[in-house]
Design a protein that fits this description.
heterodimer; A: Rossmann fold; 2 domains; 4-stranded antiparallel sheet; 9 helices; globular; B: about 260 residues; 11 helices; about 0% strand
Chain lengths: ~250, ~260
């Protein structure tokens, strides 16, 4: 049972306006240490914008973000050195080999004694035999394992994952989910992640935040949310909210 | 063969001309620059007729030095584009990397590129034309440093524009430096330029570098005033370009476009 007493991310009254349109509208939530929090919502709901504001690549219009109790904008460098990110929509230099890419990111995050760390990560993701292969020659399954390996290089305390299983076949997606669960169990890592896969959300998340048109419309465990909306599963809840039935 | 299919392809490209900067540059920018550059070279050659002093040194030396400026600029902007092309930009800026660290790394890459390309150019010039760039002597060093710094400044501005306007501004990585070429007086003295361009050339660091180069080749000495102008202007250019980049970076974060570049 997850004990939710240590807040690692505190979001208050977060708003983002793009060209007069509110992509994120006055959202507040907390993320607790060691939990897997799913950010759920239809396309354009504001999920990715929220993650990117939490990573300081998008500046909020208003509101406050604290990570590890510190203001993100003021302590950017310190905070970002203790978190990491992976996304289906971001890649890595294609012309570098797996080990060259891992070294590059290890240096970027200032990882000490990184050769051993890289070897250990490649072993745990089962790609140690491919370390001299060019990244562009990898299959999507191997690529997703490489992205996850990269995202653990700096022993992050929080991992932000934007649709990590998008574009993966069900088998690889399932393996990726298992890996994430294992990592969480092993290291107590906090994970915030987005997905359109409702089954995945139910299976993986301790808690879900449901966003629609920039608003937070529901928050709780998958079971709580399903019961609150009197539906059979999360997919039905999703359809109900996305079609304006909240 | 069906005309409608050919027309479909032609029209597909014509649509782009309505809103594509690179394609408009093909139509207006390059012909204008070529015309200006070769026009002024012609005027210069016509004026000197057969009495052009050390023309091999003038032209090949100028070409090698111009390449230093261009490679210094492209070293910065192409390094950035490499990150865009490999969809790696977001990975960089969600890391603790600072903008200043990013810019310094691209400057270092441009130094490596400039050294490699200059050595190759210098050797080729020696083999094919018996021209030794080192014959310019120790004066070569401040000239090269100034071209390198000006290239950085243009490269940083180019990168900022690509950050702001995305891939449609990519062409600037290869084109912006050439905007300065006619007024840099690379292959002819500033005197050849008409009045208003002479005034502009005075505020372009590279024009002082090339005037200096010609002076070294002709008289064997580098005029201190040209060097002071070049360093002074370069300081202003570099500081301004860094301020511009930081300003654009803030705008890009507000607009959320950093995450969209390359998509």
């Amino acid at each position: 049972m997850l004990v939710m007493d240590n807040v690692v991310v505190e979001v208050r009254d977060l708003t983002k306006v793009f060209n007069g349109v509110k992509a994120v509208d006055n959202i507040s939530f907390d993320i607790y240490e060691g939990e897997i929090l799913g950010l759920l919502g239809p396309n354009g709901a504001g999920k990715t914008t929220i993650i990117q504001m939490l990573l300081d690549v998008i500046t909020p219009t208003s509101g406050r973000i604290k990570v590890f109790g510190k203001n993100l904008a003021k302590h950017r460098e310190e905070i970002l050195s203790r978190v990491n990110f992976s996304s289906a929509y971001v890649s890595m230099p294609h012309s570098l080999t797996i080990s060259e890419n891992m070294r590059f990111f290890a240096r970027l995050y200032g990882v000490r004694g990184f050769e051993k760390k890289i070897d250990d990560l490649l072993v745990s993701f089962g790609i140690e035999g491919e370390k001299d292969r060019l990244t562009r020659t990898l299959s999507s399954g191997m690529m997703s394992r490489l992205y996850l390996a990269k995202s653990l290089l700096n022993d992050p305390r929080i991992l932000f994952l934007d649709e990590p299983t998008a574009s993966l076949d069900p088998d690889i997606a399932d393996k990726t989910r298992r890996m994430l669960k294992e990592i969480r169990e092993r290291s107590g890592l906090t994970i915030l992640y987005t997905s359109h896969n409702m089954k995945e959300m139910e299976e993986l998340s301790d808690r879900i935040i449901f966003i629609n048109k920039g608003h937070l419309v529901a928050e709780g465990s998958p079971r709580d949310i399903i019961e609150r909306f009197k539906e059979d599963d999360l997919e039905e809840v999703f359809l109900k909210i996305a079609r304006g039935g909240s | 063969m069906k005309a409608h299919r050919i027309w479909a392809l032609v029209s597909r490209h014509l649509y782009l001309y309505k809103r594509s900067l690179p394609r408009l540059m093909e139509v207006f920018y390059w012909p204008l620059l070529d015309l200006l550059l070769w026009g002024f070279i012609t005027i210069y050659l016509k004026g000197y007729k057969e009495n052009l002093p050390g023309y091999v040194t003038f032209f090949i030396g100028a070409l090698i030095l111009w390449d230093i400026l261009f490679r210094s600029q492209s070293g910065i902007s192409v390094s950035f584009l490499e990150e865009v092309w490999s969809r790696n930009l977001l990975n960089l800026f969600v890391s603790p990397l600072r903008v200043s660290e990013f810019l310094i790394s691209t400057m270092l890459i441009s130094i490596f590129k400039v050294i490699a390309i200059s050595v190759v150019s210098a050797i080729l010039a020696l083999i094919f034309y018996s021209f030794n760039i080192l014959s310019i002597g120790i004066s070569l060093l401040p000239l090269v440093i100034n071209l390198l710094i000006m290239g950085w400044a243009i490269g940083i501005v180019t990168t900022a524009l690509i950050l702001r306007y995305g891939q449609q501004a990519e062409i600037l990585a290869w084109g912006l430096a050439f905007l300065f070429q006619p007024v840099s007086a690379v292959f002819y003295p500033v005197d050849v330029l008409p009045g208003f361009l002479k005034v502009i050339a005075r505020y372009i660091p590279s024009s002082h570098v090339f005037e200096g180069m010609r002076s070294v080749i002709k008289d064997g000495r580098l005029p201190v005033n040209e060097l002071v102008w070049a360093f002074g202007l370069n300081l202003v250019y570099l500081v301004s370009s860094i301020i511009f980049f930081n300003w654009i970076f803030k705008i890009v974060k507000i607009k959320g476009s950093l995450v969209k570049i390359g998509e």
